[in-house]
Every structure is written in C-alpha cells, then in structure tokens.
Design a protein that fits this description.
Blueprint: H1 5-25, H2 29-65, H3 67-75, H4 86-91, H5 99-107
Helix pairs in contact: 1-2, 2-3
Length: 108
C-alpha cells in the first residue's frame, strides 16, 4: 500500500491535536492513544473515499467520451484505474485525433 506524504502529515497532525486535547482534559495516555488512532483511521478512510470518488468520476467521463475504450478497460476491470492516466490522455487530446498522433503527443 502506498501512503503519500500528505496522508502522513494529516495523520501526524490529527494524532498531535488529539493527544494534546486528551492530555489537557485529563484523559490518561492509553485513552489518548486510542483516540488518536481512531482519528487517524477516520482521516485515512475519508482520504481513501476521496480517491475512490475521483476514480469513479474519471471512469464516468471516460464512459461518456470514449465508450469503446471504457468498455475495453471495463472488460479487464481496469476502468477505475483510468484516473491515473487521464491527465496525460487529456493533454495529448487522445480522443480527438487518431491513435498515432495521440501517442506522439503523449510522448512529448
């Protein structure tokens, strides 16, 4: 599993704030640790939900813009991975031109 630096920064921030609040209120350290872990899992879960949402929106755009390409990816269960290459495809105008021209534009 790949964890980005921003995810780690968010988790560290959440744990720091949670621990400070819990210790300031007078909770013991085990409750502060449990609360910090719970908060970190919540932040991670919301982050993953955002990635899944982005992938679904990208796949829907592909389905509308290039149904044949979407179908080919869908048959391999890869349509949700399209969001990883979508910026490159859009920059190269891959769906507005022939495949040779699109590949040349992607390499640039």
């Amino acid at each position: 599993m790949i964890i980005s630096a921003s995810t780690l920064n968010n988790q560290a921030f959440v744990i720091r704030i949670t621990t400070t609040v819990c210790l300031g209120i007078g909770f013991n350290s085990s409750i502060a640790a449990w609360t910090g872990k719970t908060a970190a899992l919540t932040v991670t879960g919301l982050g993953l939900y955002g990635i899944v949402q982005q992938a679904a929106e990208s796949a829907e755009r592909l389905r509308l813009q290039a149904p044949m390409y979407y179908h080919a990816l869908h048959m391999q269960r890869l349509e949700m991975m399209y969001f990883l290459v979508e910026p490159t495809f859009m920059k190269a105008q891959a769906f507005d031109s022939d495949i040779t021209e699109a590949i040349i534009n992607m390499v640039k």
